[in-house]
Write a structure and sequence with these properties.
The structure is a homodimer. Chain A has about 325 residues and is an alpha/beta fold. Chain A is built from 13 helices and twelve strands. In chain A, the strands form two sheets. Chain A has a seven-stranded mixed sheet, sandwiched between helices. Chain A has a five-stranded mixed sheet with strand order 6-7-10-8-9, sandwiched between helices. In chain A, α3 packs across α5 and α6 packs across α7. At the A-B interface, α8, α9, α10 and α11 of A face α8, α9, α10 and α11 of B.
Chain lengths: ~325, ~325
C-alpha cells in the first residue's frame, strides 16, 4: 500500500509532515510506503538536515503550494501543480492508495472531488469528525465539506458514518442519531424534520433525534448533521478545550499552591489534555469520494501526521469504501 | 416594579422557585415585588414548612402545570390556567412588569408570544444566551426560540443583541459578528451569505463573519446565528462543561494524590466551575417580544432563580426594549 502525503499542507509544513512521515515509516513494517508530495529541494534539504533515513519514503515534486487562507476553488484551478492536487492525482492514477493532507481543508475536498470524483450513490462527500465521548468516541458528520445540505444528503451521511463507525471504531450495528433541537420527530428545522423521515425508513439502526449534549454523552455511535452545524461545533469544541486549558495554566502561573496541586493532579490533568488533543486521533476521513483522503488538523504536529497516516492505512485495509457501497446499494 | 415567577416551572419547582424568590425578595430593598404564580396550596404549604417570611411576595393561583417534556403549542392551547400562561397574562394586563420562568422553554416562548405579542419591526423573537468568554462574556442569539430562520431575522437579532449587550453588559457600540464557517463574506450557507449582506448594510458595528472558536475567544460582543445552530451550541457547551467536571471528579475519587492536588488547586478549579455554572448568569431574555420574559435554565436552583429575578429587574430598569425599538426605527 502506498500513501501520498501533502508535504506542504498545514501550519507546520513541511517540517511536521516530514517528521510525521518518518515516524510512521518506522512503524510500517512492510505494510505501506509513503510518498511525500511537495517542493523536492525543500523536502530533501530538511530531511538531510534532520539526518532522517527515508528507506520507504519517496519524494514526488510539486512546485506549487496552496496556503491555509486561499480560496479553495480558485487555488485548485490556478495552481495545477500544487502539492495537494498532485497528491490526489497520484491517487487517481493508482500510484497511491490514499492521500493525507493537513493543509487547506477546502482545497483537499475540492481536489479530491476533482481528481477522484464521488462514489456512486453519494451526492455529497462529508468529513467525519471524531468527538471524545462517554462511550469511547462519537462520529459526527458532516464536519464542513458542505455549507448547505438537503435531507437526502443527511440520509447518505448516515450510511457513510455507520460503515466508518463499524469498521474503524468497531461498533456493531452502529446507532445513528440525527442532530436536532428536540427529541420528538416533529421537532426541528425543515431540513431535520424531512431527514428524520428518510433516516427512519433507511434500514439504518436509527436512534432518532439527538441534541447538542448527546454528542459527548455517547448516546449514539454516529451523529448526522449538516456541514454548517458540524463545522461550528468542531471549532467551538476545540476552543472550549483551549479555554479550560488556559484557565488551569494561568492559575498555575499565578500561584505556587496551584502549581503544587497541579503536580499532584498530573494524571488527571493529563487525561483531560489527552481527551482534547486532536493529535491523538489522527485525521478525519473525507467520506463519499471514490478514493481515500484523510484530512489532518491544520495545526498538526509530527504525531498528528503519523496518526493520520495510520488512519489512512486502516481505512484502506478495512475497505471502508467497499462497506459504504454495499450499504448504499442495499437501499436502492 | 413587579416581577411574576412561574412557580411551577423547572426541574426543581416549586421548591427552588420559592426559595429563589425569597432570596431575591430579601435583596429587593423596595425596588421590586414578586408574584409567585402556581398552585396556591402547594406554594403556601412549602412556604410555611420552610418558615419563609414573604412580605413582598404575593401568590396568584394557577391550577395547571406544563411539564418540561410537553409539546408547547398543544400545552398552551389546552392548559389555559397553566402557571406560565397566567404569569404572561398578568404581565400583559400590567399587573406584572416582567415574567421569569425556568419551565418548558417552548411554552414560555409560545405563551409570551400569545399574551404579549411581538415588538413592532421584529418578525421573530430570539433567546439571548450568555457564553463566558475571554472578553468577559459574549451574547449569542438565537438560542432556540426558532428552528428555521431567514436572513432578515438574523439582521433583527443583530439589533436586539446590540441593545442588550450595550445596556446589560455595558459594551459601548457593541461589535456584532455573524456565526459562519469561514471568515470571508463569500463563505457559508445561503442563509449566512445573505445575512452577511444585510448586516453589512445595517448600521450596526458589524465585525463580519466569526467562527465557532470566536464565541469563547471574545472577538465580538454579540454573535448572531439561527435558532437551530444556537441551540445545538448551547446544549453542547453545557455537556462539555459537565464532561470535564466529571473527568476531574472521577480522578479525585480514584486517587488520594489527586485529591490532595485538588485541595491545593481549589481556587483554580472553583474558577473553572464558576465559569461553567449557569446559575451565576441568571436567566436568558426572550428578546423581541412586547414585554419582558426571562427564561431560566430547566435545572435552576434557588441561586439561579434569584439571579434570573435580578436579570429581569435590570432588563426593565434599563429599558432594553426601548433601546431595541430605537435601533429598529432608525433603520426604517
Amino acid at each position: 500500500m502506498r500513501i501520498a502525503l501533502d508535504a506542504m499542507g498545514g501550519d507546520n509544513a513541511p517540517e511536521a509532515v516530514v517528521d510525521g512521515a518518518v515516524e510512521a515509516a518506522q512503524l510500517a513494517d512492510g505494510r505501506f510506503e509513503l510518498i511525500l508530495v511537495g517542493r523536492q529541494d525543500e523536502l530533501e534539504s530538511y530531511i538531510s538536515k534532520r539526518g532522517h533515513s527515508t528507506g520507504n519514503i519517496e519524494i514526488v515534486h510539486a512546485p506549487d503550494v496552496i496556503s491555509m487562507s486561499e480560496s479553495p476553488a480558485t487555488a485548485i484551478r490556478r495552481k495545477r501543480e500544487a502539492s495537494i492536487v498532485v497528491a490526489t492525482k497520484l491517487h487517481k492514477e493508482g500510484v497511491a492508495d490514499a492521500v493525507v493532507s493537513a493543509g487547506n481543508t477546502g482545497a483537499a475536498v475540492a481536489s479530491s472531488l476533482l481528481s477522484l470524483g464521488r462514489m456512486p450513490g453519494i451526492d455529497r462527500p462529508a468529513i467525519a469528525l471524531f468527538f471524545p465521548s462517554r462511550n469511547g468516541g462519537t462520529i459526527v458528520l458532516d464536519g464542513g465539506a458542505n455549507s448547505d445540505n438537503v435531507p437526502m444528503h443527511l440520509e447518505q451521511f448516515g450510511y457513510m458514518g455507520a460503515a466508518y463507525a463499524e469498521l474503524i471504531l468497531g461498533r456493531k450495528n452502529p446507532r445513528v442519531g440525527l442532530l436536532n433541537i428536540g427529541e420528538e420527530s416533529s421537532k426541528g428545522s425543515e431540513l431535520t424534520r424531512e431527514a428524520h423521515e428518510l433516516l427512519a425508513a433507511s434500514g439504518l439502526n436509527f436512534a432518532g433525534n439527538v441534541e447538542g449534549m448527546d454528542v459527548i454523552a455517547g448516546k449514539v455511535d454516529v451523529v448526522v448533521t449538516d456541514g454548517f452545524t458540524g463545522n461550528v461545533l468542531l471549532k467551538f469544541a476545540e476552543s472550549v478545550a483551549h479555554y479550560f486549558g488556559d484557565i488551569i495554566k494561568e492559575g498555575i502561573e499565578e500561584s505556587l499552591r496551584a502549581k503544587i496541586g497541579a503536580m499532584f493532579m498530573k494524571p488527571v490533568l493529563r487525561k483531560m489534555g489527552k481527551t482534547l488533543d486532536y493529535a491523538e486521533y489522527g485525521g478525519m476521513p473525507l467520506l463519499g469520494i471514490d478514493g481515500v483522503t484523510i484530512i489532518g488538523h491544520g495545526g498538526s504536529n509530527a504525531k498528528a501526521i503519523k496518526n493520520a497516516v495510520l488512519a489512512a492505512e486502516s481505512f484502506v485495509k478495512r475497505d471502508v469504501n467497499g462497506s459504504i457501497l454495499i450499504r448504499i446499494q442495499e437501499t436502492q
